[in-house]
Each structure stands twice: as structure tokens, then as C-alpha cells.
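Dear all,

This email documents one entry for the complex benchmark we are building for the journal club exercise. For each entry we list the sequence lines for every component of the assembly. Then comes the predicted three-dimensional structure of the complex as a C-alpha cell string, followed by one or two observations. Please use this as the template for your own entries, and keep the labels exactly as they appear.
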Amino acid sequence: MTADTAPSIPDLRNSQLRFRAMESGHRACLGCGQALAARLVTESAGPDVMIANATGCLEIFTTPWPESAWRIPWMHSLFENTGAIASGMEAALKAQGKSTKVIAQGGDGGTFDIGFQALSGMLERGHNVLYVCYDNEAYMNTGIQRSSSTPHAAMTTTSPPGKERMGKRHLKKDIISIIAAHHIPYAATASVAYPSDLRKKVRRALAIEGPTFLQIHAPCPLGWGHEGDQSIAVARLAVQTGLFPIIELERGRLAGAMPLRDIKPVTDYLKAQQRFRHLFQDDPRAREELEHLQALADHNIEVYGLRGEAPDKLDSEGADTVQRGGVRWA
Amino acid sequence: MALILTRGGFALPGTSLNFKTGTWRVQKPYHRHLSAPCHAVCPAGEDAQAYIAKVDEGHFQQAWETLVAVNPLPAVTGRVCHHPCESACNRGQFDEPLAIHKIERLLGDQAIEQGWAYPVEKPRKSALRVAVVGAGPAGLSAAYHLVRRGYNVTLFDQLPEPGGILRTALPAYRLPRLVLDAEVGRLLAVGIDFRPHHRLGRDVSLDELKADYSAVFLGPGDQKSREWSIDGVVQRDLHVGLDLLKEWVAMGSVPQCKSVAIVGGGNTAIDLSRILKRAGVGEVHVVTHQALPGPDIPKEEAMSAIRREIDQALEEGVVIHTHRGIRRLILRGEKVVGVELVHMKKMEKGGKKQTIAFEGTETVLHVDQVIPAVGQEVDPFGMETLLHQKNAFEVDHWGRIAGQDGIFVGGDARTGSSGTVSGAIGDGRRAAEAIDAFLREDKAPEENEAPTLAFERLNLNYYEHAPRQREVVLPVDKRLGCEEIEGGLSISQVSLEARRCFSCGNCFACDNCWTLCPDQAVLKTKELASDGSHYVFDYDYCKGCGLCANECPCGFIAVEEEI
Ligand SMILES: Cc1cc2nc3c(=O)[nH]c(=O)nc-3n(C[C@H](O)[C@H](O)[C@H](O)COP(=O)(O)OP(=O)(O)OC[C@H]3O[C@@H](n4cnc5c(N)ncnc54)[C@H](O)[C@@H]3O)c2cc1C
Ligand SMILES: Cc1ncc(C[n+]2csc(CCOP(=O)(O)OP(=O)(O)O)c2C)c(N)n1
Ligand code: SF4
Ligand code: SF4
């Protein structure tokens, strides 16, 4: 292509061979995992969707008044009522005889903690909604406060390491089991490090009639303490160590798990992030916490049977393989 | 911008586009072509990554055209080159290197089979004329690259047929004559005026060439065997290794004997040992003061023969005595009955490298022939004025001889030559470039190769392990005549091989940057292109996080400071 026949950049943008539900110009930080995850979710969902978005970074950085990054109907609920708002949207569309799908989305604070009751109700009533939780493991928008999703021993502004504790005292809430216990047709975890797997799960969830749930591990460079260019690398390590299992549950039963080919020690993951740096000081408590986190990963590997028997095309090493021409498996 | 409403959508689309997040940026990603290691080390200058990319896209003819823009003899080099590209291949540090020489060979063979035309135009009648002496790989390459650049080329050789050593000494079991004839024949047909039976110094003189042509390229190779004796003693029936080999190649005959010791560690020694074994000589020994080549052996201490050929010779029953030299010829009358061997090694002594014999390690080997294969040098006949009593031409990187405007040399005949076919082909190409620059009264040409992509710059997460495709090799007991020993790969095997390429330093349109940019600042053009032009950074919105650079599998994206 010569310079004078090349389309202008705005024209090129408008002719991309993928649906752009979430446009550029949003105010997310450099290398934001949540921005990437939301872009991937909405572009795989396609245009015929409506969104209810909880308060949180995603909501704030995509809609600075009077602008919006969204090219689909999008509504800001409150922090605590996204499940309820999405239920209402779904009921209204149903009454109008429309097939438009409803997606509810929020951060881990809005999902695990403050919006949990509304979410549980939505699942229990069987609304035809996909709920996506962008799990960046703390209340990031208000300045990195711990949530029930924050991993054990991580440092946040409200779980600082010091004389009494080595970061967060409690464990990361096992939200996926709680969700699955609602006996919904489909619940899964995914990671920005495995975009094909993520896209497949969005499409699969949307094809199901009834409530579905997706928990996406999405690094926050600012809150986790790593450079923006490391977001994928860090997310990948969370999976490869077993700390963030990639699983699917149907009606509460485990239906699939991404096998791990080369299991990495948890320290590989932890040392890449400032929120765990206190675990690498010369302190017996730090050593104990490192062992504790390793045990948690080992536990995940055991409970979900993550150890792959032989190399597999869709295991932790194979699932992100790329090819000339961009051919991906999903 | 035009208003585009999406289905189910009611909002003005993407009003956040009004806000240019590009202003936040302090560093910016950009596309940067780096040289793949296979490219960087190829003595002929081939860019394997580039043609393998075309194979991976399914464009075999384009791949061949890319290849022959540099090396016009891929069916030959695909068989006889020692392929340093594969030793350097980054994939070797991951599982196994790509079978680059097999891809090269298949492309060469396909071109012959399908009759693909060399992408070269016949020179105009009025174009300048250049003389090339020697139709070995160096001369053939120079002639071809000169025609490509529009010159009329006359190619002289003393022999009736072109090919140099390829034809006169390379055994057909590793370079079938049908392949050689076909490829060299096609090459000459691009418009080279070939004059066989013309010996420089006998049928035509250097002065005549200088007068009749605008420039002269000399690729005479090494035609004279080095002097050999043990402390001044030689047997009466002395045969020189390369002469025997040439005789066998031309006539199929070798001297009859029961046991033989060949002295030397090069290709001639190994090829000769193998044909003697085929001819029924019971015991064939190769004596060399060098070591078997291997990754930990410095090049100057290793036998110069190709490792693959050495291994096949060993399989066929040749005995190789490394780190050994001949202390004494055991003669009965003037006939050899044996040799005394001694441990020898090249070492630092008195500030310089010397071959040292270790006293007390002598052994006797009973053989009825000793054949030296200790190397060749330039035959100065007809070129005395350029050689100044030396046994090789002193030239610069472009093949130019100081003080001899318009005369260029390449291949085995120059000092410091690698003594390989691919090296000779590279010399021919560089000299053609230099001749072109000289005739256009340009400055000296410049070599501007991009730096090489280091293994550490690859993001291996995005590649999957895959076994190297294997060729069929003729079993030892079937290696009797001239049947080719090493098979090639099939088209489908070559396609699988091409898929294994990391595409080091060059975009392969994997979409990773497009998929992973959180800011939708990587855009894609409609035409699929694997040269990087398929992706465009929209710097209005790129915040400069560097994620794409980190996740580009092949190191094609770099980041630079902006302020
Ligand atoms: C037995 C053997 C095996 C080898 N195996 C390999 C291998 O497997 N792989 C590899 O890469 N390399 C191999 N080599 C080395 C390789 O063959 C040479 O490096 C290469 O052929 C050099 O090419 P050239 O064009 O410089 O010279 P040559 O191939 O020697 O060609 C020189 C040509 O010039 C002609 N000529 C010379 N003087 C005159 C004159 N005065 N007038 C007219 N014509 C003249 C000759 O007739 C000849 O045709 C081998 C060499 C030998 C001897
Ligand atoms: C009821 C209520 N309480 C508190 C807040 C303040 N608030 C806004 S965003 C936010 C944090 C959101 O955290 P999370 O849901 O984890 O999403 P993130 O910002 O990390 O993406 C808080 C506490 C609010 N908007 N509403
Ligand atoms: S992987 Fe491909 S580009 Fe890289 S060195 Fe090997 S052949 Fe060359
Ligand atoms: S990430 Fe893939 S598509 Fe993007 S520049 Fe690198 S090789 Fe090309």
C-alpha cells in the first residue's frame, strides 16, 4: 500500500474487522488489565447487548462526563445494585419481546462485597443475564483498599504489612464456588493472559438461556505494583502457578479446567509485584507466608486437578499459541 | 466523523474519541525490523526468515524468488551447504532448529520441476560488458548478479562444463548431477554468455579482458595441490587426494589397494575416504591433527569437513584418527607399507599457535597407500601480475584488489575465504554489487544489515513445541553407488517446518498487539501483510504502556523515549 492510497487513521478505525464496543479515549491507566478485559468481553459479545455497570474504575474511566467510550447501550447502576438493575433491564426487554442480551459488570468490590446481595438475588431468580466480574483484587478506584477478593498476604492501603500482620490477614473469598452453589447453568473463570479462552467463555455464556457468571483475573498495574507493560506477564503467572485456576462449572459441578503444563513456583508470580514485596524480606513471618501461598496454590492444583498429564493444545502453555495470519482457536 | 450507529445502539458512538490520550505518552512503541540469526550468519546472505515466511503463507514461488534474489543455486546449497543458519537458529534453544536447508532444497527442486523463471530480465544489447573467469559457485553467482543488474556477462572456464568443484569433485551421492545440470543450466539461461574451453593465460589474457570488458571478476578457485612430504620424504607412487577424487567423479576409477591412510581433515579427505570404502578398500583411515567438529570445539581446532559428512563416513566404516599426525613414512624400497602415527595438537607455544607432537605416543599403522589431502591453493597461471608471489588474492570485503581498478576476486581464491559453496556465492554477489557501484562511478556499496534479534527478546509463551521434520536417509548397506543418500522433505513436511519458524525480528501478523492493546490503539489494515505494515499505531490514543512490545512474540515492536 502506498502512502496516498492508505486510508486515514479514523477511516481505518471505522473499518476494523471486529466490533468496537469500547472505544479509545477512555481514561484507564497505562496497561490496565480491566480495560483490556472489558474490551475483549464486549467485542466478543457483539452489538446486540445492553450493559449495567457498577461503580468502580471501569465505570469511571469509560464515562468522564460528557463523554462515553461505549458504543452499546450502557447504564451506570449504583455500586451495590448492579444485579438488581440488570434484572430489571432483562425483565423489561422480555416484556417488549426483544432478544437483546443483558450484561452486568463490576469490579471485585462491587461483586464480592457490596453488590453481592443483589447479584445473589439475580441468580436465584434465574434472570437471563451474564454477570462479569473484573477481578483486580481490591477497591482500586478509591485508592487500593482491601476487598474480600484481595489475596492473602497482599499489601493494600487498608492491609499494610507491619508489626502485627504481613499484609491481608484473611483469605481470598472463593466467589466462584459461592456463585456455583446457586445452581446456575454456567460459571467460569478466565484471565486476560488467555484471550481466546476468555472470548470462548463469553460467547458460551451468552448462548445460554439463564444466569451465567464470569470472573476475569485482570491485573491493576497501580494497585499491584508492576509496570503497565507487565500486565499480561503477571496475569499469566497467576495461572501458571495455580493461584488463579481457570475453570468452568455447570450447575455447580466442575465441567472443565485449563491444565497446567509447566507449573511455576508462586514466588515467580509474587516477586513480580510490589504488593507482595514485604514477603521477600528477611523475616520468618515472610517465609511462612510464602509457604502459605504456595500451599494455597498446591491446594488449588489438587482440588481442581490442574496438573496436566501430557502437553495439550489448550493447556497453560498451548492455549495462547499464536500463528502467522492471526489464526487463533477462538 | 460520520455517525455510525450500531445495532441496538442509541448513543453517539465513542465520544471519548474526542479525548486524545496520546498526550499522556512519555514513550512510544514502534515497529522495528531486526535480522533473524539465520539471516545474519548465512555466508551467501540469504534471509531464511523472509522466504520461510512466504512458505508459511503458502506462496512457494514467491519464497523461491526471495531466495534467488540472493542465492541463485538453492537446489545445490540445500544439499551441500554446512548450514550455519541452523546452528544459529533461535529455535535451537527452544526445541530443535528449523530444517532450513531442507526448505531451501525443496524450493530449489520445485523451481526446477515447475520451471519457475528466474526473476531477471535479459540485459540490453547496449549494456556494459563484464567478464567473469571461472564457472564455479563464485563465478556463477557473480555472473548472475551482474545480469540481474543489467550487465552483459561473458563467463569463461577452462573446462567443458560449468560448476567448478561442484561438478569436478563433489560425489553424486550428495549432489546428483541431474540437479546440478538443471540448476546451473537454468541459471546460465538468464542470459549469460558461457565460453567453455577458455583458459585464462592460454586462450585469453588478462590484458585482453581488461581491454574488451568494463570490469573483470576472477573466481578461479584453488587449482593447485599444496606440497606434501614427511621431512622431505615422499613415496614414489604419490597420488594427491583431490586428483583421485576428480578421477573417480569423472571416470569412476580409483587405485586398487587393501588399506589406505588419508591425511587431512577437510571435505576432500572425507569424500575420498567414502568413495574408497565404496570401491572395496578394506581399511580406510583418515589421519588429522584436528578434532571432530562440535559445539565446544573452537573452529580452528576442528576438522573443516562438514559434521554430517563425517558422521556418515563413520557409519560407513571409515576410521578417523583425530589429534594424530604422521611422524614417519615406513617405506619398503620406495613403496609405502605403513606410517608411524603420533599424538598431535595445535597449541600456543612461544607466543604462537603450533602443532606439537607428543613424544612417547607413537604407534604404527600398516597401510599400502598414503594419500595426502592437505589442501589446495591458487594456480597463478595467467594471473601472476595480481598475485605478487602469494598463493591467494588479497582483497577487501567487496572483492577489490588494492591498486587494480576494475578487477574483482571471490571464492576459494581469495585470502580468508571460508572454503564453502555458500561463501563463494556470497562473494560473487558482493563483488557484483561492487562492480555495479564501480561502473556507475558510485561510492563503495554499503552493507546495512539490521542488528540481530537475540533469543532473549522472543516471548516464548506464544510458541508451541513441535518436532523437526525428518528426511529419509539411505541406509548404510544401500550406499553403494551414486544414489543420493539424504532425501528431501515433502511439500507438506516443509509447510510444517515453516510453521515452526519464530519469525525472529519480523512481524508475522499474529494479531497479538491488536488483540492485547487495552486502548484499542493498534489498528489493522485490510490487506494481510507479514511485513509489519498490517498494523498501524494510532498515536492519538496510544498511552505508551509498552504492553504490545512486551507481548510481541518475535521482537518486532520496540519502545523509545519520547520526551
Ligand atoms: C571434495 C570437496 C568437497 C567439498 N564439499 C563441500 C561441501 O560439501 N560444502 C561446501 O560448502 N563446500 C564444499 N567444498 C568447497 C567448495 O567446493 C568450494 O569452496 C567452492 O567450490 C569454491 O567455489 P569457487 O567458485 O571459488 O571455485 P571452484 O569451485 O574451484 O571453481 C573454479 C572454476 O574456475 C575455473 N578456472 C580456474 N582457473 C581458470 C583459468 N585460468 N581459466 C579459466 N577457468 C579457470 C575452474 O575450472 C573452475 O571451474 C568442497 C570442496 C572439495 C574439494
Ligand atoms: C455505596 C458506595 N460506597 C462506596 C462508593 C465509593 N466507591 C466508588 S468506586 C469504589 C471502589 C470500587 O472497587 P471495585 O468494585 O473493586 O472496582 P475497581 O475500582 O477496583 O475496578 C468505591 C468504594 C460508592 N460509589 N458507593
Ligand atoms: S526461528 Fe525462523 S527466523 Fe528464527 S532463526 Fe530459526 S529459521 Fe530463522
Ligand atoms: S504482536 Fe504479532 S502482529 Fe503484532 S507486531 Fe508482533 S508479530 Fe506482528
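Observations: The pocket of thiamine diphosphate (ligand 2) is lined by residues A 34, 55-58, 79-80, 106-110, 136, 139-142, 147 (CB under 6 Å). Residues 100 and 285 of chain A are 53 Å apart (CA to CA).
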